[in-house]
Amino acid sequence: MNVWKRMADKTRALLNDVQERASSPTTGQHMRLHDIDEQIDRKESESARCHQAAAKAKDRYEDALLVASKAQEQAEAAIKEQHADDAKLAVESRLYYELKAVEYSEQYTAAKLRADELMLQAQALKSARAELGFKRSASLFWADPSQAKLRTN
C-alpha cells in the first residue's frame, strides 16, 4: 500500500513541478539554470574521477614496464650463468608484465578519452548556461515594470 502511495506522491510532485515551470517563465528559467549547474557539477566530478583512474593506470603501466625490464635483465643473467630454469621463469615473468603493461596502457587511453569527453560536455553545458543566463537577465530586464516606463517614454 505504501508503494502505491509513494508513486502517487511522486507523480503529483512531478506534475506540480511541470505546471510551475510552465506557469512562470522566470521560474522555469531559474530551474533550468539550476539543472544545468547540477549537470556541470556531475560532469566535472566524473571527469576528475576519470583523470584519477587514468593517472593510476599510467603509474601501473610504468611499473609493469619497469618490472618487465628487470625480469629481462634477470633472464639474461640466468642465461650467462647457465641456469635454464631461472631464465625460463624470468622470461615468463617478463611476458606477463608486458601483457599487463599493454592492458594498463589501454585502460589509461580509455580513461583519458572519457575524461576529455566529459570535460567537453561540461564546457558545452557551461556555454549553454551562459547563454540561458543572458537570456534570463534580458527577459528580467524587459519584464521589470519600472523599466516599462522608460521604454514608453
From TrEMBL:
Coiled coil listed as a keyword: yes
Residue runs in coiled coils: 54-81
UniProt entry keywords in alphabetical sequence: Coiled coil
The name this protein goes by in its record: PspA/IM30 family protein
